[in-house]
Design goal:
This protein is α/β, with parallel strands linked by helices. The protein has three domains: about 220 residues, Orthogonal Bundle (Clc chloride channel), CATH 1.10.3080; about 200 residues, Orthogonal Bundle (Clc chloride channel), CATH 1.10.3080; about 120 residues, CBS-domain (Roll), CATH 3.10.580.10. Helix content is about 65%, strand content about 5%. It is built from 23 helices and seven strands. The strands form two sheets. Strands 1-2-3-4 form a four-stranded mixed β-sheet. Strand 5, helix 22 and strand 6 form a beta-alpha-beta unit. Helix 2 crosses helix 6, helix 10 crosses helix 14 and helix 12 packs parallel to helix 14. It is elongated, with a radius of gyration of 28 Å.
């Protein structure tokens, strides 16, 4: 066997184990680099596209009225043409879709949806739709990293880890927030904390952050905001802001989900044209409605204390974001809610500062708190919200106030209004399953190559006496019989003593099916759980050449270890 084949098999066997190995760390790093480079191209394309449409100020200065109306219309036509050329039967992208694919398909994403996400996300963000770039980033990062794993025949349990690595690297490369990227993966996408996944995810997040620093510089996304330490006398206002943000998050979610529910039976071109036309009208009437959420923060800073303008901006961003996201424009939700949270906090600060206070509320700090609170209320990821704001602002002074604003915002949303995470609500509305049985969750972590029996006995059409001799001398080895049918196709049966046959030596034959060596124990469970006995054979390149056996007893023991 060539050395390259031996090396590949050794690597694959390491990756099949549910532990932190050098192999998964190196492969996760490679996948993270691939994801980060894709995001770099994505960001550069958005920047160049902005100059092409004449948006040199990144939506801080309004374009001519005709351009503001025409650009969203042209954009949705281009997006429709893109989806049509890609022959996509269903347009499903972004973070909710990635959560679904992580649970049901180990994070592997169809190439058509990935192309749609890359080019569609660029078009939507260049055209000024009120969406964020983190949705496309998550999708593209997972696709790039799993592509690396797929092409080296990585086991599916490791593919899932690579998808998590790609997502973390992509978020870190988008916003230079490696810690928040790691926690977002664990808290929102995987919804579990496992050390053997956390270590390679951490490594890939660092890679993504370093790559983006080299190309885009060290400045954080919210460098224009300077947080200061709040006096204890203002902490009550922080808690009250959290209550307001919790209600605001629920209102935005309800608005967006109502839009999704209303248009879910419309065909694609109708939905996109509606989104483009409404966005275009808003852009003509309220120019500040254009652009992602982070551009709204710039507008908030320019109009501090101007309550009428801020109310108009809040209305515009609520409608523009709900319409774009609810009607299927490719883009992310987190960027949109950041902008809404900033405007809500600006209004809150402006209103409170008109009261006879001994010390005015600090504007920049409360804007940051508004972003943290509404993110926690919307996606139900309090730790990710906290760390995102700390990293985006590069300020540790914000930690205690951010905790105080996140807690009431989250509790108001989840407990008072019984609201689910907006991502989970999207999956429910789209009938995309995201929950699997705890047994499957446990067994998905282990590849069959890690536990399969390789020293089994394989016999070609033996006689019964030959079988009896082998069974007597097999030393507890599994015995498999291969038969060849009229079409020269092999079939395999597991052979054992029939314990119900009394004293006479009788044999029991059980047909067994084959699974690929990259499969996980969850797939073996699916095959054997009905009978609670038997086995499957494992093959590498050719289905007619078994390289291992996984019995029901092996699966049962692995499950006990994982759940203990």
């Amino acid at each position: 066997m060539p050395k390259t084949e031996l090396l590949k098999k050794s690597l694959r066997k390491q990756l099949a184990a549910p532990t932190t190995t050098l192999a998964i760390c190196l492969l996760g790093l490679l996948g993270g680099i691939a994801a980060a480079l894709i995001i770099v191209f994505f960001r550069l394309a958005i920047e160049q596209g902005a100059y092409v449409v004449g948006n040199v100020s990144h939506w801080q200065q309004p374009l001519p009225t005709f351009s503001r109306f025409l650009i969203p219309i042209i954009a949705v036509v281009l997006i429709f043409v893109l989806f049509t050329v890609a022959r996509s039967r269903r347009v499903r992208m972004g973070l909710p879709y990635v959560i679904h694919r992580m649970k049901q398909h180990y994070g592997m994403l169809p190439w058509r949806s990935t192309l749609n996400q890359f080019f569609g996300g660029i078009i939507a963000l260049v055209a000024g739709f009120s969406v964020g770039r983190e949705g496309p980033a998550v999708h593209l990062g997972a696709a790039a990293s799993t592509w690396v794993g797929y092409h080296v025949e990585t086991p599916k349990n490791a593919i899932r880890t690579l998808a998590a690595c790609g997502i973390a690297a992509a978020i870190a490369a988008s916003f230079n927030t490696p810690i928040a990227a790691m926690v977002l993966v664990m808290e929102v996408v995987l919804r579990e904390y496992k050390v053997h996944i956390f270590i390679p995810v951490m490594l890939s997040a660092v890679a993504g952050s370093l790559i983006t620093e080299q190309i885009f510089g060290l400045a954080p996304e919210l460098a224009m905001l300077h947080a200061t330490e709040l006096p204890n006398t203002q902490l009550a206002w922080v808690v009250l802001l959290g209550v307001v943000l919790g209600v605001s998050g629920v209102v935005f979610k309800r608005l967006m989900m109502d839009v999704m529910d209303t248009v879910k039976d419309m065909n694609l071109i109708t939905r996109l044209m509606f989104a483009g036309f409404i966005t275009a009208l808003l852009a003509v009437i309220i120019p500040t409605s254009m652009g992602p959420g982070l551009t709204a923060i710039q507008q908030v800073l320019q109009h501090q204390g101007e309550l009428s303008i801020l109310f108009t901006l809040l209305f515009a961003k609520l409608i523009a974001s709900a319409i774009a996201l609810g009607m299927g424009v490719p883009g992310g939700l987190i960027g949109a809610v950041f902008g809404i949270g900033a405007v809500v906090a600006a209004l809150f600060t402006g209103v409170v500062n008109q009261l006879p206070l001994s010390q005015l509320l600090e504007f920049d700090t409360f804007i940051l708190l508004g972003m943290a609170g509404i993110l926690a209320a919307s996606i139900h990821a309090p730790m990710a919200a906290l760390l995102a704001i700390v990293e985006l602002s590069r300020s540790v002074e914000i930690v205690i106030p951010a905790m105080l604003v996140i807690v009431p915002a989250y509790l108001i949303s989840s407990q008072l209004f019984r609201s689910k995470s907006i991502f989970i609500s999207q999956l429910d509305l789209q009938d995309l399953p995201y929950q699997i049985a705890p047994v499957a969750v446990a067994l998905q972590k282990t590849g069959v190559e890690h536990v399969m029996e390789t020293e089994f006995k394989l016999l070609l059409e033996p006689t019964q006496n030959e079988l009896l001799d082998v069974l007597e001398n097999s030393s507890n080895q599994t015995v498999v019989v291969m038969n060849v049918d009229e079409d020269n196709q092999p079939s395999y049966r597991l052979v054992s003593y029939d314990i119900g046959a009394g004293d006479s030596p009788s044999l029991s034959y059980m047909p067994i099916t084959g699974i690929k060596v990259t499969s996980t124990l969850a797939e073996v469970w699916d095959e054997l759980s009905g009978a609670r006995r038997g086995a499957v054979y494992v093959f590498d390149q050719k289905q007619s050449e078994p390289c291992g056996i996984v019995t029901w007893e092996i699966v049962r023991r692995a499950l006990q270890r994982e759940l203990s």
